C-alpha cells in the first residue's frame, strides 16, 4: 500500500514516519498536489499554526487534490492540526479557510485550565470507533495543543475532557482524524496507527 | 479532567554521552543516551529531555546526531536543549527529531526569541528553562549554566516568558540541584500559580515522596530528575504505582507491560 504523508513544511514528519515504519508500513512524502497521485492512503500530520497549514494547503494545490482523494474514498488520517484542518476555519487564524469537510469552527480551549493542553490524557468514547478497536477504554494518549473542535457532531466518536469536551477522534467513512499524537503515544498510539492501516486495506 | 502528571527523565550529555557532574565539575560518562531513553520509554516515562550541558559550538553536529539516535529509539515525546541561541539552532534540533526545544540564556538576553520560536513551531514546542536561586526577596534567575545572575525575578520572568510564547516552563532550583533533599516546593508553587502554562519542576529529587510533594504542594504539572533514574534508585514503574496509590493521576502502562 502506498502510504503518503502530506509535508507542508512545519510538521514533525520523522516521528510519524518512524511510527509507521515500526509497523512495517513505509511512507513517502507529498509537498505538492501532484505528489499525491497514486496515494492509497494519506496522512495529514500537523504541529504548529493553523494559518501556516491552511496557506500551504491553498498554495501547492494540495487542498483540491486532497478533496478529490476524499471523494474517491482514499483513506485519510489527520493528526493534531491535521484534525483541525478538516473544519471550516479556526480562531487561531480567522482569515484562513480550512478544508471545510466537517462543519464547524476550531476554537481555543477554555482559559480555566493550563494551556497548552500538554501531556497524557484519556478519551471518552461516544460512538463505536474503528481507530480505537481493541484499545482499552482507559488507555492514555499524548496531547499538545491549545485549540480544539467541539462541533464535530456525529463524526466525533471519542472526546477528551480538559476544561471542556473537544473532539479527540473523528471518523466518517474512510476519513479519520485524532487530536492527540499517536506517533508519540507509546503502545496505545501504535495501536491506533495499526487500526488505521487495517481500515485502509 | 484526567490529565496525568508527568515523570520526565533528563539525560545530561556532553553532546555524545550521558554524564553526571555536580555544578558542571567532575563530569563522568555514564552511557549511551539512546539506550537510556529506550529503557525509560519501556518503563513508562512520559517524556524524555536530552540536554547538551557542554553546549560547545564545535560539538554541535555530535549532539544533533545524538538527538537523532535518541528520537529513533522513542515512542514518546522528546525535548532537546542546551546552547540553543537562534531560530536556526532550534530548526536543526527539531529537524533532528526533537518535539520541543528548551532555551535558557538566549531567551534572557533576547526574550523575542521565544516569540519567534512559537511563531515557527507553535508554543507547545517551546520550553523556557529557568534556573532559580533563592535570594532575600524570592528567587533570582541565573544564566550561563547557573553561573551568572541575570538580574531578573523568577516569577516575573516566567510570566513574561509565557507571554512571549513559551508553552512550558522547566524550572530548576539551583539550591536543590544535586542535593537530593527534595524539590523546592515553595518555588514551584509560586511559579505554577503565576503562569497559565504547565510547569516542570526540577532539582533535588531523591524519593517517591519528593515527587508526591511537588505534585500536591508544589502544584507541578511534571517532574524531572536525572541520576536517581540513571542509577535505578527510583524505578519509574514503581514511582508511578506509589503516586497512583497516593491519588496522584499518572499514566501507567497497561496489560503485559505493567510490573
Summarize the structure.
The complex is a heterodimer of chains A (201) and B (259). Chain A has 201 residues and is α/β, with parallel strands linked by helices.
How would you explain this protein's 3D organization?
The complex is a heterodimer of chains A (201) and B (259). Chain A is α/β, with parallel strands linked by helices. Chain A has helices spanning 13-22, 50-59, 62-71, 81-84, 186-200, and strands spanning 3-6, 27-30, 41-44, 76-79, 87-90, 102-108, 117-121, 124-125, 141-145, 147-148, 156-162, 164-172, 175-178. In chain A, 24% of the residues lie in helices and 30% in strands. In chain A, a hairpin with a 1-residue loop joins β11 and β12 (164-172). The longest helix of chain A has 15 residues, at 186-200. The radius of gyration of chain A is 15 Å and the shape is globular. Chain A starts with a strand and ends with a helix. The model of chain A has no long low-confidence stretch (mean pLDDT 94). Chain B is α/β, with parallel strands linked by helices and 259 residues long. Chain B has a single domain, classed as Aldolase class I (TIM Barrel), CATH 3.20.20. Chain B has helices at residues 33-43, 60-72, 87-95, 105-109, 112-121, 154-164, 185-194, 208-216, 227-230, 236-245, and strands spanning 6-13, 18-22, 25-31, 48-52, 78-81, 100-103, 126-135, 138-143, 148-153, 168-173, 199-202, 222-225. In chain B, α1 packs parallel to α2 (60-72). The mean pLDDT of chain B is 93. The chains are: A alpha/beta (201), B alpha/beta (259). Chains A and B meet through α1, β7, β9 and α5 of A and α5 of B.
